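Job type: complex structure
Entries:
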Amino acid sequence: MQFKKKTPSKVEDTCISLIKKCNTLKSLKTLHASILRTVVHLDLHRFTNIISHYASLGSISYAYTLFSHRDSSFFSDDFLWNIMLRGLVDNTYYHRSLLLYTRMQYLPIAPDNFTFPFLLKACASLRNLNMGSQLHAHAFIYGYSSQVFVANSLISMYAKCGLFYFSKRVFDKMPQRSIVSWSAMIGACSQYGFHDQGLLLFTRMLNEGIKPNRASVLNAAACVWSEEVAPRIHRVVVDNGLHNDHSVRNASMLMFGRCGRIDLARTLFDGFAYKDLVCWASMIDTYARADLSLEALHLFNEMRLQCIFPDSVVILALIQACSILASSHLARALHVVIIRCLPDSRLMLDTAVLDLYMKCGSLAYARKVFGKMKENNIISWSTMISGYGMHGYGGEALCLFDQMKALRKPDQIAFVSILSACSHAGLITEGWECFNSMERDFGVKPKSEHYACMIDLLGRAGQLNQALEFIERMPVKPDAGVWGALLGACRIHSNVELAEVAAGSLLDLDAENPGRYVLLSNIYASFGKRKEAYNIRNLMKSRGVKKIVGQTSIQIKGNIYTFVSGDRSNPETDLIYSELGKLMERIRQEGYVPDLSFALHDVEEETREMMLYAHSEKLAIVFGLIKSGYGSSIRIMKNLRVCGDCHTATKFISKVTGREIVVRGSQRFHHFVNGTCSCGDYW
DNA sequence: CTAGGGTTAG
């Protein structure tokens, strides 16, 4: 590129427009050299432009070198400083930008209203609250803290650093606000889960006559979680002509999906003339979160047919979908895709895969993935710990927890993982030790979930009265999980009085959960209190709560077979039932006694026993025995908690057949080997 | 020269 000599002012203009036209680092360097050859003394304006352009082309170190060797007459120009700060921040050199600001304070140069937004952005990205609030003070002293751009930056800085109420205070005190102030504040509300407040702000904004733009509706849409509100927001979107914007359309789609209107989400999806990757990812994720695994997988196939390659977000959505299906085949297939195609974001994907393997019962693979992970964070540790917990490996979980404690401060969820692992494994002393250390050693306040684990632990030990006392002494309000744990313990230890206490709260707190009614009714039935059992079932019906049909599935050679109680839909039904009959006879000889309290109550005893035999768990196990090679283990999955009678029967089956049987219930895994179960008969 | 802005693991 050649630089032509013209009159000085023209030269300067041309020069700057030439600088701006450079779109590669190489062309900029050539131009820079030729400018230096032609002009002896580079003026401030051109110098700044060159630095700015080096930064925007990514050569921040070059820009910084130029800046450091600048002419002494440019020394205290704030524009130049701002450009340098912007360059650093844009290139994610946040720390460096803050250091430069610190140096600036010792020089005769004052920050202006442009300076603060750059620096606050750096603090926000670094989550450096300390520096952020110092900058707030400086901005105040220099008189810029109410300036719209500065205040907007403060809002998002505080929001990112975890101080929602500081954001709110800045917002409330602003003498005037721009659309950006509103959308930043609404965004903060959605980030902190204050959805109603966010929607309220959005409405207020509209009432003040401010025309919504892209960002504001995106943030408002993220606050929508109810079917009634979603169409209203969508109308605002359409009325303001924002419905053709890609990101807005994707956000609307997700909004409908979140509110349970998968149909409307799909309609929007189908309406996209051009579907980008985010669009596919969002729809697949919508299906996965709605437990529509097969739809998610189907859509993924369609995506592949259009030659669109998945990214980590798509894979995460698929992992979610597979965890419902619990297919270890699919898990491995996905894992292969990750290893081959997605070397980035490995921590997140590996953690998700780890969790998936655990949920599919592939403990060995999970362990392998964890062992090979290059880095670990609190999430991956917790995942592995709760995975061990689900399988009843309390010792391994504790060992891992100890290792983790040396490296990271456990958070609330980490404690849920370890406490539930202790309760699943019956490690009572260890559980108490963990619980006591929470607040004492780590400053983590126990929440309801942690108490629920402890109730489970006490219940397992049969200390039901202590469990109740513990609940009464809880500093937080016991939730459904806590009472549910007590009710479960009452079922195991046959305590109808306490069951009634627990149910008293539970049937209000968790009124729409059918499992609670069924459990209580079973407890009554096991005490022969037919009338009470019947009443509970009636209460459930009158409240319009539908019982979830129990079903068990088993995978044979990549195909998934599902059974419900008394199922006769399998083509090999006759064989299954005749084998089932033989097997039941065999385990009876071994000492199995059917527990009729798990059958329906209003039929004859003989029929009840037949119905018990035909429970979905038993059908799936028998099918597995028929279809799999001798000696191989059998894996089945149930959508609900495993039935007590099936649990007993499975123990006997594992003994008489010599097979390992792995059952995934809704709460945990049961490994049956030679007549015993890993749960220690507390499920 | 400045702020907000679609999907992401326990």
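Summary: Confidence is low (pLDDT under 50) at residues 1-6 of chain A. The first helix of chain A runs from residue 8 to 21.
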